[in-house]
């Protein structure tokens, strides 16, 4: 969502990095570029003015002019001001002293309230709570049924005494849900309310009546991050008519310019608490202003990446894998490789994961071209092998590879490529686990001792020694012999053992 803004800011800061000292003209030019970038990202004008004013004031101060690296200091100021506009510190949910905690969701129709209710419920369940979803949206067709389906997918119960589709009293449903939660010992109640295509008095009155009936501990305003400036207008209208305690941004994975995320918190004075960035129930997390600012400035989000990895990877399996890698090279099999790949898939899209690493903005086009289905093809190839073949890929001759290709719906060349890449990766990881720094393809190996270095020098010196005229004559003679032989191999030529293992048995 913030790709365009991130690219503009990155280009702006690149112009600063080559300067050892910043003049007022440099600061003005940088501020002008940042202003254009923010306006193009659909950030609200009052927010842009406040942001640029704060950046220019601080950039002209002593913290920049007396800094050893003024350009980095300006980037630091922009980062801190972005964090401030996004809400400052991370805002957590307030839980009631006496359960149940009541959370009411409000927002326009189409903002994703119902889906978000399921995501929030699953997130709370993973945190150790016992949530219940309440179907209080009785106007939108099939809204009750949709919530029931989402609740079933999330493994969370749904309280839906009214059929919906225009039948039932949402205020009474909300009131009954509190008693139901107390009776069933649910500690969190999430109320999904009705929305409209636009702001109207009927919707505001209904939301206010539900608020007065249940007295929620948190009212969360759900806003579609793709609607731009209307997000700020709608948020202000809800704040005046009903009031809310926090904001939830949905559809952050869209291709809109994302200015709403930078504007809502500043304009309303209510922090963004959660962000939804995908269609799956797991595509939901706490909104961290500092991490979002870091992403916008192209510095990645390593903390979120680590948190996701900790949730997806099993510590005991990781220790076992480390032990195998540190042992004999053949201990790490294709079954282990498949297991690791399946755990990586749990983290989500590969391109999204790489985007969280610092400096990945510069190769975003290449990252976006990564096809996650390639991992599915690799898994299909490995699962088409027998257990013995997975444990020892060296037994894969031509007939076995043809069978695996047919079973996985791929080509023999795909199987060959996978096996070759597996051997290379296993060797590389084994050397890394033993503390060596092997050479990457096309790069010289690192960590060779003085003895190896000396041998390389001696070999190089031997190749270059001798009479230059004689050396040239030897080269020409060798070329002539190859031409006469038609590039044929010598009669006594033998393939290396590693290649022989790939060939079918003779005779």
Tell me roughly what share of residues is in helical segments.
Answer: 55-70%
What separation lies between the terminal Cα atoms?
61 Å
The total count of strands amounts to 8
Major sheet, described briefly? 8 strands, mixed
Element layout with pairings:
Layout (H helix, E strand, L loop, with lengths): L2 H15 L6 H17 L4 H15 L2 H4 L4 H16 L15 E6 L6 H14 L4 E5 L7 H12 L3 E2 L10 H15 L3 E5 L8 H14 L3 E7 L4 H13 L4 E5 L8 H10 L3 E5 L7 E3 L2 H8 L5 H11 L2 H12 L7 H13 L3 H6 L8 H5 L4 H11 L3 H5 L6 H11 L3 H22 L16 H15 L3 H18 L11 H4 L7
Parallel strand pairs: 1-4, 1-5, 2-3, 2-4, 5-6, 6-7
Antiparallel strand pairs: 7-8
Helix pairs in contact: 1-2, 2-3, 3-5, 5-12, 6-7, 8-9, 10-11, 15-18, 18-20, 20-21
Describe it.
The chain has an 8-stranded mixed sheet, sandwiched between helices. The protein is built from 24 helices and 8 strands. 56% of the residues lie in helices and 7% in strands. The chain is flat, with a radius of gyration of 31 Å. The longest helix is centred in the C-terminal third of the chain and has 22 residues, at 412-433. It has 507 residues and is of the alpha/beta class. Residues 437-465, 483-493 and 495-504 have low confidence and may be disordered. It has helices spanning 3-17, 24-40, 45-59, 62-65, 70-85, 113-126, 143-154, 170-184, 201-214, 229-241, 259-268, 289-296, 302-312, 315-326, 334-346, 350-355, 364-368, 373-383, 387-391, 398-408, 412-433, 450-464, 468-485, 497-500, and strands spanning 101-106, 131-135, 158-159, 188-192, 218-224, 246-250, 272-276, 284-286. 34% of the residues are buried.
